[in-house]
Amino acid sequence: MDERKSKKPEEATQQADRKIIERDIKEYRPFKRLLLLDVLQDRESRPLLLWVSFVLLVGVIVYHWLEGWSVLDSLYFCVITLATIGYGDLTPTTPLAKAFTIFYVINGIGILVGFFDRIRVVRARELTRPATDGDSKDNYPKEN
What we know:
Shape: rod-shaped
Largest sheet: none
Structural class: mainly alpha
Order of helices and strands: HHHHHH
Number of helices: 6
Distance between the termini: 32 Å
Number of strands: 0
C-alpha cells in the first residue's frame, strides 16, 4: 500500500512535466519564427518596420528617377543594397546616384543592425515571458 501512495505523487509529477513539455512544443511555432511573424506582430517593432518601408520607398523613387530603372529593378537594387549583399548586376552610373548610394548604404547598415537587435529583443522576451495555463516556472525541472 505504501508503494501505491509513493507512485501517485510520482505519476502526478510526470503528468505535470508532460503537460509543460506539450505546451512548450505547441508554442514553439518554427514557421512563425522563420518568417519573422513574431517580429511583425510586435507593436514595439512597428516604428522600425515603418522606417524600413519609408527608406525602401525613397530608394525606389530616387533610383527610378536618377537611373531610369524600372520600379522592380529599383526595389531589387534597394533590397540588395540595404542587405549589404551587392551582387553588382545593377550599379549607379550618375554622380548624383553614386552620392545618394553612399548615404543609402550607411543608412542601410544602421537599419540592418536595428532590425537584428529588434529580433533579439522580441525573441528574448518570448523566452522570459511568464508561464501560462496555470503552470509556473517552479514546475520546470531544476538544473543541477
